């Protein structure tokens, strides 16, 4: 299980456009939202962070090379087999400063109705376990199932406070760093099937 002691900084290289977009997103937030998303003070400890991420069975060619002469350029033995659509899993997870919450593997389509089921079956139990009755605020991005009217109505009926999140917000949530850590560890284990991939993800999450 990844150890969480505060906001993490393990990031992938970003483009200038991404950085500009991120800066604009932060500047448009109100001061309270900035404090939450940037982990200022102790406010971020009251947030239940959530996110989805895709994991693939194949992680590229891992720098594979072949040694050949110029004449062997078209030799089939020097070809690399291409994969049009690698097998993958979409994962939902949540976490807080207190630890890791529940993990869900999407098996069907991702729509508002299915997302509400995930909130009922995974987010609510995680909230009880991690905060034990203490005040908290729920974070989610602006994906369509999250912002659908039936989802927002469900959240209002249960009086769940939701952290206002900017539309363009790459890497503002600490859980993005958790995904990177888990993907790195899963990649090192090199799962060859969907079943192995799911098992690796669950083991690293726990």
Put the structure in a nutshell:
Helices cover 39% and strands 14% of the residues. With 206 residues, the chain is α+β, with helices and mostly antiparallel strands.
The structural class is alpha+beta
Strand order of the largest sheet: 3-2-1-4
CATH class: Alpha Beta
Number of strands: 4
**CATH level-two architecture:** 2-Layer Sandwich
Number of helices: 7
Instruction: Estimate the global geometry from the Cα principal axes.
Output: elongated
Round the mean pLDDT to the nearest integer and report it: 79
Strand content: 5-15%
Low-confidence stretches: 5-19, 25-30, 60-64
Distance between the termini: 4 Å
Describe this structure in words.
With 206 residues, the protein is of the alpha+beta class. Helix content is 39%, strand content 14%. It is built from seven helices and four strands. The protein has a four-stranded mixed sheet, with helices on both faces. The longest helix is centred in the middle third of the chain and has 20 residues. The chain is elongated. The N and C termini lie close together (4 Å).
